[in-house]
Amino acid sequence: MYLVRLIAALMLGLGLSACASVETATRNAPLDAPALRPAAVSLDVQEVRVRVPRSLRVSEANRYLPGGDIVWREDPPGDRHAQVAAILEQGLERGVAALPVGVVPVVLDVELTKFHALSEKARYTFGGVHAIQFTYTLRDPETGVALTEPKFVKADFKALGGQKAIAAERRGITQKVRITGQLANVILAELGAGDGYRAQALGLIGALNQL
Questions:
Q1: How many other C-beta atoms are found inside a 10 Å radius of the C-beta of residue 71?
Q2: Phi–psi pair at 125, nearest 5 degrees
Q3: Taking 80 as the threshold, does the pLDDT of residue 26 lie above it?
Q4: Which of 17, 95, 204, 209 could lock 187 by a disulfide, CB 3.0 to 4.6 Å apart?
Q5: Mean pLDDT across the chain, nearest whole number?
Q6: Any residues with CB less than 8 A from the CB of 95 and at least 6 apart, and which?
C-alpha cells in the first residue's frame, strides 16, 4: 500500500510525461537507495524528530564570538541541549503544519549541528548572526528506512543588536520568536513545491560564526 501511494505521488509531482524516466531510474537504482525528492511529491509529515547530540559543546562565555556549538542565553541557565531542541521542534512543527495536505507519509528526522544565538555582549551592542544549522532525512514512518539522503541546511540569518534588539523585545519579538519563525520558513521552503531554501549571504560576521 505504501509503495502504491509513493508511486502515485511521484506521478502527480513529475507529470505523466515523466513517468518513463521515473520508472527507468527506479529500476536501475539499488534497492536500498533513497530516491524520494521532497519537491516532486506531496508529503504527509506525520512526525518531527529532533536530535541535539550531547557531543555538541555549549559555551556560556560572554564574548562577541563565544565559540562552541551551542550559544543560547534567553532561557534560564540549565540544560541548553534540551532548550534548543525545544526551539527546533516548535519551529519545524510550525513549518510542517503550513504544508498542503500530502499523500506520502514521512517522518522528518533532524539532527542539529550548530545553534548560535547571541551572547549578552553581542546582543546589546552591534548584533550579529543567528547561526542555526542542521541535517535532515525523510524516513518511512513504519520501517524507519531513509527515503532521502541526509541534507545539510544552513538556516543562518541576521540577528538584531543594540537599540533594535531592545525595541524588538519590548514588542515581544525575542531571539526565540525570530529563530522559531526562521526555522518554520526554512523547512517550509525545503519540503514545499519550490527548489528548497537558499542560505543567506551574511558577509564577514557570518563567516566568523562558523568558527
A1: 26
A2: -125, -100
A3: no
A4: 95
A5: 83
A6: 183, 184, 185, 186, 187, 188, 191
Q: Residue 211 has which C-alpha cell?
A: 568558527
* Phi, psi for 154 (deg, rounded to 5): -105, 100
Neighbours of 91 (CB within 10 A): 24
What gap in Å lies between CA 18 and CA 187, rounded to an integer? 26
Residue with cell 541557565: 77
- pTM for the whole structure: 0.79
Euclidean distance between CA atoms 105 and 102, whole angstroms? 8
- Three-class DSSP category at 142: coil
What pLDDT, in 10s, does the model give residues 131-145?
999 999 999 999 999
Task: Please name which of 85, 54, 89, 91 lies closest in space to residue 72, comparing C-alpha atoms.
Answer: 85
CA dihedral 96, 99, 102, 106 (to 10 degrees): -20
Provide the 3-class DSSP secondary structure of residue 149.
coil
CA–CA distance, 116 with 131 (Å, rounded to integer): 5
> What cell does 8 get?
502515485
